[in-house]
């Protein structure tokens, strides 16, 4: 059997080493691909967060639950079919995730005689077996940006409401015995 010796020059050896090095840094099993086009940014808009009283039309915790939506069709159904009464607009939420934002979930209390809903961002609220997660209704800033206002969640006897810190409704909630659970996040006015 004859042995063959292959000699390559310095330039050939350098080219072979560079080719090998570029293969060593690719993902195992990955085929070489052309550079992908940059990802398109997700379109972001703002939608108004609306609050409705589910029974009675007042913020009285003895007979009223509160419902929250950012969907105009859902808001129309809430008033026309279920006779909910609009309480107020609570600022605007983002329609897409982004930096310094967190998803806002609408939860429904399962064992309530009257419909009762709350806004939640924490896993402990979202995974609570007493509530049903009705999904993400928007994304809220988790740190204030210029002009943002804190959206505060209030509770009283398995009833939840929300108010912006500058809202007239905030004083009414406190007067009816609601206490603040703290900020959900910051909304665009």
Provide structural commentary.
The chain is an alpha+beta fold. It is built from four helices and nine strands, in the order αββαβββαβββαβ. The strands form three sheets. It has a three-stranded antiparallel β-sheet, covered by helices on one side. The longest helix has 15 residues, at 10-24. The radius of gyration is 28 Å and the shape is globular.
List the keywords.
single chain; three-stranded antiparallel beta sheet; globular; 37% strand; 189 residues; alpha+beta
Task: Reconstruct the topology from this structure.
Elements (H helix, E strand, L loop, with lengths): L9 H15 L21 E8 L12 E4 L2 H9 L4 E10 L6 E9 L7 E4 L2 H4 L4 E11 L7 E8 L2 E6 L3 H8 L3 E9 L2
Antiparallel strand pairs: 1-2, 1-3, 4-5, 4-6, 7-8, 7-9
């Amino acid at each position: 059997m004859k042995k063959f010796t292959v000699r390559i020059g310095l330039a050939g050896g350098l080219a072979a080493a560079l080719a090998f090095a570029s293969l060593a840094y690719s993902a195992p099993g990955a085929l070489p691909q052309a550079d992908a086009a940059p990802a398109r940014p997700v379109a972001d808009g703002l939608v108004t967060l609306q609050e409705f009283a589910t029974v009675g039309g007042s913020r009285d915790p003895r007979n009223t639950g509160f419902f929250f939506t950012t969907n105009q069709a859902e808001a129309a159904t809430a008033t026309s079919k279920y006779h909910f009464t609009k309480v107020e607009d609570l600022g605007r939420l983002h329609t897409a995730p982004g930096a310094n934002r967190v998803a806002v979930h609408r939860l429904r209390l399962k064992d309530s005689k009257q419909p009762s809903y709350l806004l939640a961002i924490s896993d402990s609220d979202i995974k609570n077996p007493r509530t049903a997660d009705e999904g993400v209704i928007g994304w809220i800033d988790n740190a204030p940006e210029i002009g943002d206002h804190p959206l505060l969640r209030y509770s009283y006897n398995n009833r939840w409401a929300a108010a912006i810190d500058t809202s007239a409704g905030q004083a009414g909630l406190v007067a009816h015995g609601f206490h603040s659970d703290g900020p959900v996040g910051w909304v665009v006015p």
